[in-house]
Amino acid sequence: MSVSMKRRSVKKNVSPLRKADQYDDPSYNYLHYWEGRQYEHMAEVAAIESLLKAKHFKHAVDIGGGYGRLCVVLTRFAQKVTLAEPSQQQLDMAKEYLKGRPEIDCKQMQAAHLDFADNSIDLVTMVRVIHHLPDPSSELAEISRVLTTKGYAIIEVANLAHARNRVKYALHGKKIPSKPVDIRSAANQSNDLPFVNHNPQTIIKQLAHAGLTVERTLSVSNLRSPALKRLIPARGMLTVERIMQPLLASIYFGPSIFFLVRKA
């Protein structure tokens, strides 16, 4: 292969990693996205608390963490937290949101190109990111690279195999696809930012290929429903959610799956 062909190949592979257009769009406010999603936020916090209970770390990195929504939670488990986020607009929001928290620093970087030394981070979290990655192999390999031996990561997956999907596919006589499925509407197909659901079994294999072993699994946001949120207070939903997360994990019931993984 010629040098020019190699350059074209590299450019083709790298350019999609630089896409953060939606999150840098001045008309899009990710803080506003979370208005009315108190239950979903609390469900994710509960999952992190459950997975990290009694653990403590020197340095946690939250990859693609937006304005730092979950970084605040991680300070309870780590001496230092770094928000690693590709969007400058999100980092600008983070400066205000994380004001007065010197234990959290913010750096602009891509999930597939983390600016950390090998074996230097003992906790990584990546929540609401893989749904933008049809093939997260590079990102998972990069997480494995920066993690210390026996270091932990929490990886969240938008779940293709959730209960309603299994019923839908079964009614059509089909199995849940092993490959990711694009769930964007026809109107949004022109958007360069992918939005996919993944089969958890496929992600487990990709994690293993990257040298990451799943230790625990939780089914998260099990009660995600506009009707339920109108009828039941968020705190009441959270009480049930905490019970359901471990009980429904083995059947991948909910729309979101949290994996606690460890580097060998």
Descriptors:
single chain; 264 residues; alpha/beta; seven-stranded mixed beta sheet; 9 strands; 22% strand; disordered N terminus
Q: Give the DSSP E fraction (strand runs of 2 or more residues).
A: 15-25%
What is the rounded distance between the termini? 36 Å
Helical segment tally? 11
Helix fraction? Answer: 25-40%
Please give the order of strands in the largest beta sheet.
3-2-1-4-5-9-8
What is the makeup of the main sheet? 7 strands, mixed
Element string (H = helix, E = strand): HHHHEHEHEEHEHEEHEHHE
Mean pLDDT: 91
Low-confidence stretches: 1-18
Structural class: alpha/beta
Radius of gyration: 18 Å
Shape: globular
Number of strands: 9
How are the SSEs placed, and which strands pair?
Blueprint: H1 3-14, H2 21-24, H3 30-33, H4 38-52, E1 57-63, H5 71-74, E2 78-85, H6 88-97, E3 104-108, E4 121-126, H7 137-146, E5 147-158, H8 163-171, E6 181-182, E7 196-197, H9 200-209, E8 212-220, H10 226-231, H11 234-247, E9 256-263
Parallel strand pairs: 1-2, 1-4, 2-3, 4-5
Antiparallel strand pairs: 5-9, 6-7, 8-9
Walk me through the structure.
Helix 4 crosses helix 11. The chain starts with a helix and ends with a strand. The strands form two sheets. Strands 3-2-1-4-5-9-8 form a seven-stranded mixed sheet, sandwiched between helices. Strands 6-7 form a two-stranded antiparallel sheet. The protein contains eleven helices and nine strands. The radius of gyration is 18 Å and the shape is globular. It is α/β, with parallel strands linked by helices.
Concise synopsis of the structure shown:
This protein has 264 residues and is an alpha/beta fold. Helix content is 37%, strand content 22%.
